[in-house]
Amino acid sequence: MAEEKLKKEETLVMRLKLIGQSCKLFYSEDPVKITRARGQYLFDENGKRYLDCISNVHHVGHCHPAITKAASAQMDLLNTNTRFLHDNIVLYANRLAATLPEKLGVFYFVNSGSEANDLALRLAQQYTQHEDVIVLDHAYHGHLKSLIDISPYKFRKLAGQKEWVHVAPLPDTYRGMYREDHPAPGKAYADTVKDLIEEVHKKDRKISAFFAESLPSVGGQIVLPEGYFSKVAEYVHSAGGVFVADEVQTGFGRTGSCFWGFQLQGEGFCPDIVTMGKPMGNGHPLACVATTVGIAEAFTANQVEYFNTFGGNPVSCAVGLAVLDVIEEEDLRGNATRVGTRLMDLLRKLQAKHEIIGDVRGIGLFVGLELVTDREERTPAPKTAAWVVKRLKEDDRICVSTDGPWENVLKFKPPMCFSVENAELVVRCIDCILTEIKTSGLKLENEDMCLVPTHKMTSPESS
To answer: Is 160 helix (H, G, I), strand (E, B) or coil?
Structure first.
């Protein structure tokens, strides 16, 4: 391994000069230079250890020896074009199939979640012979142009909404149209999709797909209300469209109780297309689309070959198989349930102590802590959230980030080896920071702060 040659300041100067400035760093005012990692820990150039609550990509832990060994062994043996016949791709597809509903039995391997979502869009449009797509407000599905077009989180800041893209309300029962006191929020939010489909039909347009993250992440770590997906699928299928579940953030057991996030919606629900990425390669570029025989046959029928040079190569599939082995052998789903439950319990106790905590939500190791200046009005507290993130990094060497329409939700998506002790430490440190804010009378939010997010969102008052 090459010795460290650049000082942190030198690295930063070179990055500012050579790397596009739209590629942002964590903690841009004072970046952390990470030189190695293991498990749920990051180490800087001085050997200081940071607890990583951010890296959901490194699903089974940074630099897991079993993953490194599998990649190295296969790289030493063979890594070649996926047009050559090889065992790894079919063995891996077979292992993935065992985790999914039976009808999702055809796989296309790619290199990233963005590639997977782009291909899912193509599959849906080819199968239905329609173009229009329904997405959730504040959704993010990837950085390709096709996906910017269906990601309100991005397109509202750029060229705007295309005529073939239709945005449904985010089913947020904390601050959305229908809240926790609604008798049936799942059906109520699903009916907004039904209304949207009717509006599309009035324009003489047809739906190709409903595209949604199984647990919206950029939207603020949202856990969707029960029955929402099933009812939406009913409406979408009746309109001739297909249901695409984006599992790039939440697949591979992050929820603990289920291997896939969409399974939280009940055994009776099954998407038509599932996309996956980030966690499946533990940092190696590996992603996939799973779909039905019927959709795959329609894609083949256009007589245009689909070819991906690196997707599903022998090394990638060896890594993927090793990730599945580690999830099972180390009971990481069980760990996600145990640690996630403890984390949520502790955060709820913190909520009872600190008025600024408006909501605690999540499942497994997918958790959000929403900060507000007024619980009754649910006024977002983005500056306080940013302050907490800054203090956790500087004082406690804990890496956390924010999300949500107002950037006021502290999000936790750590490696799946995150421990109960890690969870207890994080909550103690947040408690100290919030207590200091309260006792010192620190005023972080402007009284006249603008409550309009970076895009137009359905107003809670409209309900």
So the answer is: coil
